[in-house]
Amino acid sequence: MKSLLTSCPSRWIRVLVLGAFAGAVFGDEPNAFIGTPVAVGNGSAWVMVTTNTRNEPESVSVVMTRDALQGLPAYDANKPAWEFAIPIPEAGPRTGYDHVLLDWNPAGHLPEGVYSVPHFDVHFYLIKNEEREAITFHGEDRVLAMVAPDEQLVPAGYVIPPDAAVDRMGMHGLDPAGVEFHGQPFSHNFIYGYYRGELMFVEPMVSLDFLQSLKDSTTPVSRPQRYSYPAWYPATYRIAFDSAKDEYTIGLQDLQRFD
Questions:
Q1: 144 burial class (0-12, 13-18, 19+ CB within 10 angstroms)?
Q2: Looking at residue 108, what is its pLDDT?
């Protein structure tokens, strides 16, 4: 093992060490469960679930090392977004989230002039990966795929533009109250995702600039009246940098069980 570690780049050493403890209670947070890390940029990222004294989920977050923001893929017209699949911890309580996709958008995406800046989309999916992979808005399934969700599944004020339907992802419910829709640069916002009328993912979005500012931001989440899948849903989401650990956190917080 010594010879392997000394010959590996530092980011892979971290992945190997974290992987050895993946799924276990870990580190200086006694109620934290860590998923298997994956390589992102020059660093790594993993999912962490924290619990309360009743072993109920309090938060579920994507954690990234500082160097994960270095060495990220550059814009490629043939591949405008890069997808990193990050597994949920095997140990600890079930949150209802099946898997997490961290999407890096080096030039942003639509709507043009709103989200067309380098940023991350962090999708917490409530459906199986194979179900997500089968999502399409083309062909005979298009009408069924784009069925509007019941209004109780959409938070007050949110809109679902037809051009926000993305294959292998879903339809995106946007919050037009976000500053990015009112002449200010995009920093972060919270998205809900739908397919065939069901709410099947939640998504904090955050710009690269905001992460690099090292700010600590906790923002209330607008909630729908009900959900399509039983899970622990957030009342807030947090974007933060821990200078002691040299880690970024993008997380769902103040979780509450909804059936």
A1: exposed
A2: 72
